[in-house]
Hints:
Shape: elongated
Oligomer: single chain
Order of helices and strands: HEEEEEEEEEEEEEEE
Structural class: alpha+beta
Largest sheet: 6 strands, antiparallel, barrel
Amino acid sequence: MISTHHRRTRALTLAETMVAVTVFSSVSLGLLSFGQASMQLVARNLATNLSHDSARISEMRLLSDLHESASPFRLFTFNGSTFTDLDPAVTTDQDSLSQRLVSARANGVRFRTRAGGPYRLTANAAASATALTFNFSVGGAVPYIPQVGDKVVLPLISREFAITAVSNTPTVASPQATVTVDAPGGIGFTINTTTTGNVTTGNFYRSVAYSVWDGRLRYHPNFTGTNRSTTQEVRNRITSPQPFALLFATSSTAIDNLALRVSLECYDPNYTNRRYQNGTATLQTIIPPLTVPTPVSATDSY
């Protein structure tokens, strides 16, 4: 005898369905909220990292250039149109890194950096001479063009001279040029470059600067004459308006312009247009020049 069994399928009640939907919705909402919060946290951390990385790269450039200074540091102020040298006075503020006294602060610092050389003198020069002829060719190129306001240092006689005129612009085809130097009475020594075995060279130095104005750190690659206003922006959103100062050993000692104090703060409020808030990046350091004593002075005026 064959018997037939019927299976009954029990459906969910309305109450059970509502409970299941509620639980599923709550879990889904929690997962979505967690995912959104995680994405915001990741984006904010990425924004902060990018901001700090930008500050780090720009500050590394600043530190590298300052360390390569070939002259003492000179502070100046800049109001958007006028550059004015500043003779810093000692304050009662003590630097926490060096324990020295900090000078009055400024929003600009200028110094000289090596621009070219050593280049060989190609003509004899008498002790009374003020014109020096060099060959500016390097590997078939002319990477440096002398200009009025640069300085030339002759290691052979341990003297430096400001350039007051340049007779011609050196080129690859004609790399020799003659510079006239500010040397009343002449360079003071006879230089013989034509006798076999005699080699005399000169190194050239140019005035450069860093300044902070309108919330931007700027580099002046040629801080001479009308070229001073030509700048390269290194970092924007700078919140420290006067980051540069010099240090005094005591309140009664004379300043030597060799130790520069930098206190630079950067703030980036946004990452692209997403409005993710960032923190700040702060650089505080003491910059000694690369070589002491330095090759050239920084007492020259503009």
